[in-house]
Amino acid sequence: MPQLTRSAELFEKAKQFIPGGVNSPVRAFKSVGGTPVYMAQGSGAYLTDVDGNTYIDYVGSWGPFILGSMHPRVTAALDYTLKNIGTSFGTPIEMEIEIAELLCKIVPSLEMVRMVNSGTEATMSAVRLARGCTGRDKIIKFEGCYHGHGDSFLIKAGSGALTLGAPDSPGVTRGTALDTLNATYNDIESVRLLVNENKGQIAAIIIEPVAGNTGVIPAKPEFLSALRELCDNEDIVLIFDEVMCGFRVALGGAQSLYGITPDLTTMGKIIGGGLPVGAFGGKRKLMERVAPLGDVYQAGTLSGNPLALTAGLETLKILQDENPYPELERKAVILEEGFRNNMKKLGLNYVQNRVGSMSCLFFTETPVVDYTTAITADTKKHAKYFHSLLDQGIYTAPSQFEAMFISSMHTDEDLEKTITANYNALVASGR
Ligand SMILES: *Cc1c(COP(=O)(O)O)cnc(C)c1O
Asked: What predicted TM-score, i.e. pTM, was given to this entire model?
């Protein structure tokens, strides 16, 4: 069992100066209990904490590390930029064109793109643009989907908000809350109902085309195509929030996997290769309304800075050069089948949802297709499971409602160790 002495000391100190000791809520281990682990170093698929314990990492900085941490090509590129270019100018740089052009080539819906610094900025900007273009105020999102911490989205959001049992946040105005309507994931009738009740008032429908913040929930293809049709008929801007699933489930994101083209796409996580980057883009007709070309204001002092773009651009180039997706799928299948065999041996029948290298083991036997079915999961069992894995050197997200990510750096040996640990952890979680 790993000792977490130093982590515990640091956490005590952190709580004096940082709210809850952390700079992002889910890191605090609130839903699983215990001390958050302070990491000291990351390399490939492995993490080392401040007490010297090592872990196989399935969080990957919450998604960005599809190539693992410190990929040699990414660190070499960062090194070059630091030594030869600089960290920020606040002027246009050539690299911005390079990443924009590459993104438009890779992601089917993109004709123009604007770089920002986080997924939250991307979704906030995309919704403003949709409102500006349609002259309408309301948006529809889906229960359990997370789109960052923008006011409009903190209504029945997944992830941290869900884990902490605070789906609505104080500080979000009533007006904002009233402009956000919640539909049920994978249920087109719930969307039609809202659209009909608010005829001509819906600016945008925003959705994670693979939901990853209520555990992992794949969208049914016929649901997404029905959404596309509904948006076309009602002149509603369809926004795919691919901050997590973009470049993860396929190079071109969920939209290329499902063959459905949204009007706008938001990106983050992998696109920054471990540095803070986000982006939003889509149809030229809409993107031409973004300032300074158009009247919808959006800006950022550090947007498109060379250091962050270097990590993102190099990551995208590696994904393009190496096409790691078939190999990621192979590994993901090994893990999924290993977990399934373990459950069979133990007489358990928990649900596993997976799209490519993002997956989730839900502590429920109810098929998970939306928020309501996701929260049937037994979070107490998950907490025991999580701590058993941690004790065995397997680092997964400290929440039932987060994805498990495989990177191209996980070896078959890592997967075997993880499958063994999964068996022990399932036993520890109690039957
Ligand atoms: C992580 C995430 C966001 C928010 O991105 P940040 O970079 O944390 O602001 C938005 N949407 C989805 C789908 C995400 O997974």
From this structure: 0.96
